[in-house]
Amino acid sequence: MTDGTFEPDQRLHPTSWLFAVFAFVRQLIVPLAAAAFFGSRDGNPTWLWPVAAVILAAALWKQWFYRYGLGPTGLVIREGLFFRNVRQIDYARIENIDTERSLLHRLLGVAEVRVETSTGGKAEASIQVLGLAAAEELRERVFAARGGEAREHTARKAEDVLLAMSTAEVVKFGLIDNRGLIVVAGVVGFLYEAGVMEVWSAVLRAAVSPELMARLIARGMVIQIALMLIVLLGAVLVLRVLSVALALFTFHGFTLTRVDNDLRTSYGLLTRLSLTLRLQRIQAAHVTQTLLHRVFDRVAVRVDLAGGGASPEAQQQGRGRVRWLAPLAAPNRARELIARALPDVDFTRTTEWQPLSPRAYGRVMRKSAALWSVVGLGFAVMLHALWPFLLIAVGVPISMCYAAMYVRYTRWALQDDALFFRRGWLTRKLVIVPRNRVQVVCLGESPFDRRYRMASLRVDTAGAASPTDQIRIPYLDLEVARELARALETTAAAQTKAAPAEVAGT
Amino acid sequence: MLDQRVDPATVSVWRVETTAIAVFIAFSCAGPLLEDSIVLAVAVFCAVMVISVPLGWWWSKARYERLSYRVDDLGVTIREGVWWWTHKSVPRVRIQHTDVSQGPLQRRYGVATLKLYTAGSRYTKVELEGLRHEDALALRDRLLSKEAQGD
Questions:
Q1: pLDDT digit string (tens) for A88-109?
Q2: Over the range A266-291, which residues count as b (16 or more CB within 10 Å of their CB) and which as e?
């Protein structure tokens, strides 16, 4: 289907060339820097100027001949003059229109618009850059063109704020989510590469003279331990502060709004992201609660989106972003938000949690104890010592505790409309998959499972961020697992037939 | 409908494949020993072959015995696995597209692999290996026609 005679006539924002230049430079940064570094030894790198001129010309050229437009059946983008490329994306296939705004974008009042289809992986088209009004208009007109009834909705432009995180909440998120470590690792890596570390160690050697060390050692054990504790405490403190700072940069002003029938999140201090979560594309909800979350009485909620870039290529490009529904919310609020995100699921009923097989405890315990014993025996043989047998002595009670907690906190529940699965004692995770989102059901029987007449059940959905995120219920009685699998495959097929529009990821 | 078996000819394909792998392993075990003594190398080669070839033959047969599939209104169900048994069900409406592929060995024995693609994350591709080529094509067409009816 092509709109043969349709000619796109909309142009990019006048400052687009600037961003095109940045994009070019970013791609060429390594060779350019290397060339500038090695070239600068013999005086001025004069050759840089023609390169800059070529880049500028290419950027201006791109902006000059770039046209987009809303054709009768789809979005049309035309690029280039000599090598002309016309891309048509049907409205029906457009799943998302996301915008990304870095500091520079915001200073100039523009946004980079990404058009995503369900193909998965990277965005189908990236329009760089549009004025804010133009971007909003594009988004509205595309979604209005999708269906007649949606048009009336957009006229009203209903926009409820479902969740707005205050700065205090973002700070809490930073305290809980210990991402400061990533910053430190990154900074250390960078400094090491840059050779700053050697300078630093020289400075340290000069400052901490042998006399100082000797005096420190003379102070005795207690002072040494105290000093070590202070350093440790300081490190923890610095990490938390960094983590809070990072949280403020990424999640500042997080809002979740309802626009028509879709949800939209926007967040970020310098780079502001605006992501649409189309309800039809939401495949599963994940609730995570660590020990620290419980201290603050909060949970974190994510959702999986079909075609949301779970493919390996997308992850390499860093496009496989976590789709937050609420980075941090009170448990009650989170429940309401999930109910909004998964309208097919009835959350008013009490969930009837089912345990694993009664024999699961024994298997988990023996598996864990066996692992401890193997490690202990291995050490004992390797070191010709007796103390590793202590590992076995300690390992058995630990395994018993672990197995008891494992069995106690792993639960599943099957409703008419959804499958619930929760696990974990310290970090508790809950996954909710509407039954009409189930893709493939896989019942697995390992040799051990067969011995105990048990099975594990894996439920595959679209758009999962990582394989560990998905539902895999272990240690089920074989009959229970079979029944559950049968129920899930029946509804996965039946419910989507009733509502073909719901077919996920097609 | 009852569970169906794939074409027994596929056992031959797997046997040739496993024998090839066995030869490769035997060579890589024996190769480094050639410099020291040829007799030892030959002995190791023979020993590896004696163990792995019958294992491969047995495994091919066992795999065939375990492999069965069923196609009904709901979709396709595949049971397989020699040590690790699995039972995968792919609802018909979840099948995005299908491939029928044939390697050179498979072509020699007239068998094919039917690949079912879904939008899932882990099981994006579910393979049914060892169908007769005509059966694979017929099954593909059947799945496609039902898909069209569903819309």
A1: 888 877 777 888 888 888 888 8
A2: bbbeeebbbbbbbbbbbbbbbbebbe
Residues across chain A: 506
Could you tell me the domains of chain A?
Answer: 16-157 (2.30.29), 176-251 (no CATH), 360-502 (2.30.29)
Question: Which ipTM was obtained for this model?
Answer: 0.85
Q: Do B145 and B80 reside in the same domain of the chain? A: yes
Rg, Å, chain B Cα set:
19
Mean pLDDT of A281-291: 90
Q: Does B149 reach chain A within 8 Å, measured CB to CB?
A: no
For residue A381, what are the CA distances in angstroms to A366, A367, A465, A467?
Answer: 22, 21, 42, 37
Alpha carbons A129 and A114: distance in angstroms, whole number: 10
State pLDDT tens for residues B27-62. 888 888 878 888 888 898 999 999 999 999 999 999
Q: A140-189: per-residue pLDDT in tens? A: 888 777 654 444 444 445 578 888 989 999 999 988 887 767 777 777 77
Domain total in chain B: 2
Residues B49 and B92 in one domain: no
CB of B78 less than 8 A from some CB of A: no
Measured between beta carbons, which residues in chain B are less than 8 angstroms from residue A506? 96, 119
Question: Is A325 within 8 Å of A302 (Cβ atoms)?
Answer: yes
Contact between B84 and A447 using a beta-carbon 8 Å cutoff? yes
Q: Which of residues 95-134 of B touch A (CB under 8 A)?
A: 96, 118-123, 126
Assess whether B75 and B143 both reside in one domain. yes
Co-location of B127 and B55 in the same domain: no
Q: Do B121 and A306 touch (CB under 8 A)?
A: no
Q: How far is B92 from chain A (nearest CA, A)?
A: 7
Could you tell me if B151 lies within 8 Å of chain A, comparing CB atoms? Answer: yes
Specify whether B23 is located in the same domain as B78.
no
Asked whether residue A503 carries a pLDDT value surpassing 70, the answer given is no
Containing H/E element for B9? helix B9-30
Whether residue A485 and residue B119 make contact (CB cut-off 8 A), yes or no, is: no
Query: Kindly report the CA angle at A55 between A53 and A58, in degrees rounded to 5?
Result: 110
On chain B, the residues whose CB falls within 8 A of the CB of A310 are 121
Cα separation, A497 vs A404, in Å, equals 42
Interface of A with B (CB under 8 A): 118, 306-307, 310, 438-447, 450, 458, 460-464, 467, 470, 485, 489-490, 492-494, 496-497, 500, 503-506
Last residue of a domain, one of B19, B34, B64: B64
Range of the domain at B109: 68-150
B-chain residues near A444 (CB < 8 A):
84-87
A470, B122: Cβ pair inside 8 Å?
yes
Do B113 and B82 reside in the same domain of the chain?
yes
Candidates A117, A283, A437, A439: best to mutate against B (most CBs of B within 10 A) is A439
CATH number at residue B125: 2.30.29.30
Sheet with A471-477, strands from edge to edge, namely A471-477, A454-460, A440-445, B85-91, B75-80, B68-71, B4-5
Is B72 found in the same domain as B60? no
Using DSSP, how many helices (H) and how many strands (E) does chain B show? 4, 7
